[in-house]
């Protein structure tokens, strides 16, 4: 074969190969530019497109802070900026080194971090949340590849456990649970903002497609007073320790507005660390003042007495002589001390806390009237206070009432209600006979700072003004001469009634203690000053073990808190001689 033919053959082979390459390249170009045009366009747009979410700040929860008559606002719940340590394992070059450094800076164990990042994932849960700016800066200085610091709003409760069961908490997903946080979750939350746009390869913004500013949440000012709440919680804890009680609740309500001045229960929890309590018992998150029913015992007697006086069935001066026990439908009802008191007027019936006499009062009143007045006192329904988890009182429907129901309810057994329902009933007695609906919020603060007072629901008359006046005087005499005398405050007239109530068992009957003395709830409900009441209060101690009667436990606690309220919060001048 000649050299010329050989060269021509080589050029032919080369030409065929080049033609094949051109066909292959053109085919790939056709596929990408025509067949897969939409896919590659979407990828390009995705690289140019960006989204930034601006998280709204949750509204604050304020309380009043009254010091020496000067009122200011204090936040009990607020958002603070913290940082989350996020990692992209695929971007981390030295995973062992990163785990060691992050462990020293976050306090999370090295092994835990290494297990989380020893892969090629693009996302794993945060290494640590809630870091301060100073801690975040220390991590940033290390310049660890694949480690990112993401700012986030974290709910913070500066007073820790103060009013915790009233406030509730915000969980890890940002949702309010229990209390004010749960009830007003939507309003507190606000609306997050979003910026959507396009950027060039250097990350510079070319255009904005959407730009919506975040709308911060609404803030709330509660009727609660910080100084009163602090004093009440401190006094309650001391009482639990002194009387060796399992738990306790105190509610203070303004009798002229219906606002809750203090609402405390113990034990409680720190909402900053709510996770620490969830494993033990979620029950600690529930507010006993609105969610725990109990048989009130003798503090219920003034409600029945008020109704009987208001209907004209009796007067405070009505007298009668009662035995130490009475049988109703085969059930024996006895006085607490198993003795008769001789002839008594109705004030003395309350002073002596005479169960048998109260059965007689309920007979004069009649079960229909009794049920009607108790309905007006609100003991069968929720108060509809603006807090989560409230429950309604419990009692048989009127059609199911027998004589024994009427008789036992007359002295506070066979009916169950919450501490708040009990306080509201006493507020009606104190407030010239008008029931006030309790409320927790005083004012609303819009994100822009404008304030709006909350419109309060109009109260409803339960008993006449004259009956209210008579009952206030009768309960004053109970403190002066009856079992409630340890609730006295020098210089002021206090009206109150003690109650030592048995605790019902699920299967019927009542709990008993090993020593045979019984297991009781001690409580005292009352108001002050008698002539122009400013507050009503309930004190409740569960299963105290140092004394059998509430006059020696709940009454001194009531007196201690009342002294603070009258002298330092309301700053009233004494009206009675101080002995």
TrEMBL record:
Single annotated GO MF: penicillin binding
Intracellular or extracellular location(s): Membrane
Listed name of the protein: Penicillin-binding protein transpeptidase domain-containing protein
Signal peptide extent: none
GO CC terms in record: plasma membrane
Pfam families for this protein: PBP_dimer (PF03717), Transpeptidase (PF00905)
Major subcellular location class: membrane
Domain spans labelled Penicillin-binding protein transpeptidase: 248-561
GO biological process, one term: cell wall organization
Domain named Penicillin-binding protein dimerisation: residues: 55-207
Taxonomic lineage: Bacteria, Candidatus Berkelbacteria
Keyword field contains Membrane: yes
Domain of life: Bacteria
Ranges that cross the membrane: 12-30
UniProt entry keywords in alphabetical sequence: Membrane, Transmembrane, Transmembrane helix
